[in-house]
Write a structure and sequence with these properties.
13 helices, globular, four-stranded antiparallel beta sheet, Rossmann fold, 2 domains, 13 strands, 410 residues
Length: 410
């Protein structure tokens, strides 16, 4: 039974918003359908109702909801998928317009959709319309891929008519300390304060303090976030190779064996040579991730597609895509620019681990991901980075986010 004033988290996933709220001293109630995401949330101690957001009744929430969070599934809109949500966009806009006046045309519109997930982006309006009848919620935060921004602008027009202050736009997660240049369409709305985006804390190039305000730190690199060059402490991890539930083996057996051996040892006191190279420290004066004096260095390739983003360890990652095998991130060797050239063949690629991917999303290193390897990666890739979430939520909760509230490296 739901009691007290709630923060409602629609499409709650594995807990990106929930972890941010816990850091800020607040809890939410998450609605989530995916079984593995629900198990992850349970292991993390988060309140969850396993349900289809499109089917759950709104009446249990009316009169007790202070804030609404929504990150609808992005697969229909994401560049990592078929993007049929863009084809369905007029139908989604129609659903939002209808739900805003209490007219439920979802069943009819769904029959015309190319992707059955497209209309999920209209679901928050069903809840907001029901809550608005009693003057709720006080605030709203929504997040999606950049192509959903026109839909957020439609929401904004409706919400302003209901008395909300609303801001919509696209934010780069790297500008808020996330070690990933992930861009997201954001909607912020409030009945009690002027809605505006949080001030960026980071920039591609560090900015000194000036008369106009505090400076910004340089974007956080993957090496810093993972502790590869920022600390001597080991990075706890879970091997993410093939096997039961993990799909076929994507890399040569030799590369996988080194990772398996490291996992079986139960620690990183004696990591594989490849993994040790990934943790090369800046103190040596070598290029970040340099593999000894071989002329090779490690970078992260965001997926296996021809246009995949590849970034060096001393840069933030590109957007992490997961969900099917063509969208798996791998560490790959590239020639060191200022060396005399590679000496010998390139080291074999290594798939990123769940712990590493979670850290690049700013989840704790020991976050309790549940499920098969594929399920874990899908959860990680679809989650909102908790650090970005905390920046977005703090003003609505009257909280101040301190720089030490999130520790990225293990």
């Amino acid at each position: 039974m739901l009691t007290g004033r709630l923060v409602l988290d629609l499409f709650a996933g594995p807990g990106g918003w929930s972890h941010a709220l816990s850091v800020l001293g607040t809890r939410d109630v998450g609605l989530e359908w995916d079984a593995w995401a629900c198990r992850t949330r349970a292991a993390a101690g988060q309140l969850t109702i396993r349900t289809d957001v499109a089917m759950y009744p709104t009446w249990p929430l009316v009169g007790r909801t202070a804030g609404v969070i929504a990150s609808p599934p992005c697969q229909a809109w994401s560049m990592a998928g078929k993007r049929l949500g863009l084809v369905d966009q007029p139908l989604v806009h129609q659903a939002v317009a209808d739900l805003a006046v209490g007219r439920d045309t979802r069943a009819k519109l769904l029959t015309a959709c190319k992707d059955v997930r497209s209309l999920l982006a209209a679901e928050p309006m069903r809840y907001l319309h029901a809550l608005h009848a009693v003057g709720e919620p006080e605030w709203i935060v929504m997040e999606e891929v950049p192509d959903v921004l026109p839909l957020w602008r439609q929401y904004a027009v409706i919400l302003r008519g209901w008395g909300f202050s609303v801001w919509t736009g696209v934010l780069n997660c790297a500008d808020y300390g996330v070690p990933q240049t992930r861009r997201r369409a954001i909607l912020l709305a409030s009945r009690t304060r002027t809605a505006e985006p949080p001030q960026p804390t980071h920039a591609q190039t560090a900015e000194p303090e000036s008369l106009f305000g505090p400076g910004r730190e340089r974007w956080v690199s993957m090496a810093e976030a993972l502790g590869w060059g920022a600390t001597d402490r080991p990075v706890p991890t879970v091997c993410a190779g093939g096997g039961p539930g993990g799909g076929p083996e994507p890399f040569p057996s030799g590369a996988r064996k080194t990772l398996t051996d490291a996992r079986d040892r139960g620690s990183w006191k004696a990591p594989s040579p490849q993994r040790a190279a990934l943790r090369t420290t800046r103190r040596t004066g070598a290029a970040a991730g340099a593999v000894g004096d071989t002329g090779w260095a490690w970078s992260l390739r965001s997926n296996n597609q021809a246009n995949a983003t590849t970034r060096k360890l001393d840069e933030p990652a590109g957007t992490l895509f997961f969900g099917h095998r063509a969208n798996e991130c791998v560490w790959v060797a590239a020639p060191v620019a200022d060396s005399s050239g590679p000496k010998g063949p390139a080291p074999e690629p290594i798939r990123i681990t769940a712990a590493e991917a979670g850290a690049l999303q700013t989840f704790p290193a020991d976050y309790p991901w549940a499920g098969t390897k594929g399920a874990q990666f899908s959860q990680i890739g679809n989650a909102v980075p908790p650090l970005l979430a905390a920046h977005l939520l703090a003003p609505h909760l009257g909280k101040t986010l301190n720089r030490d509230d999130f520790t990225l490296a293990a």
